[in-house]
């Protein structure tokens, strides 16, 4: 099979129904998160998650002439900030599993796409009846996202919806180095004021004491491995990049559904930022589903250029490398 031949489709109702944690995090819990004893912030983050889950579970609404408001005291947002590979997604999924529904879980890209498909008023209508909205990989990449998401969070919290999010960037620093974030400072600060920020420190757990990524295979070795692996795919790297450009990132999960392993021929550094960011989203969906990756050409650790790794998306690229290298083992 070739991923580049696929054309995944997802309807509006299915988008809503699919707002659940990805397969890798189907059965996680706060108990299954193992804090690094050398990083006390991790144990503190578990406790903060438990307390927030308890607040969400006990939430009741009062009604007034001015609309609904929650009886709960304190902020309606929990924001898990930290580097990649410290288990923030595990904690977010654990929080989602710990509270009763209705609730929704999605990546930032999936959420913005949902609003685009449903329209803003319809998305607010559907999500405002939820107790919790969990947003993974929260980032503001452009002015459009900034205005949309800050308004969405304002509308939902006004309806008493709790918001939990993970990110590699503090909420009041979102967008820095990517667009003229200073022009949207009021919106960003208004949104960030709705969150209690919990820092999660530590080294990347995916690579503690583990060997480096395996070296790339030859094209013949890669072809043979793909042929002997049932349910696997094999694509030329350039063909895959072209396919990712025509498919919305919110459909990348559907793109790899049912795939047992991904094989990529002639891997090379991403030619520009747009391709690189699509590869980040693609890598995240492979990681969510624990799909192994094998390559020929250049190593996955060289997928992003030095210039990219010095830019505003540095943390995204490093997270992608961490996840893809783990999958290549």
UniProtKB/TrEMBL annotation:
Q: Name one GO molecular function term.
A: ATP hydrolysis activity
Q: Which InterPro entries match?
A: ATPase_AFG1-like (IPR005654), P-loop_NTPase (IPR027417)
Query: Which UniProt key words apply to this protein?
Result: ATP-binding, Cell cycle, Cell division, Nucleotide-binding
Q: Where is this region: Disordered?
A: 207-227
- Provide the Gene Ontology terms for cellular component: cytoplasm
Listed under GO biological process in this entry are:
cell division
Decide whether keyword Nucleotide-binding is in the record: yes
Q: Has the keyword Cell division been applied to this entry?
A: yes
Pfam families, sorted: AFG1_ATPase
Q: What PANTHER family has UniProt attached to this entry?
A: AFG1-LIKE ATPASE (PTHR12169:SF6), ATPASE N2B (PTHR12169)
Report what the protein is called: Cell division protein ZapE
What is the organism of origin for this protein?
Answer: Lentzea atacamensis
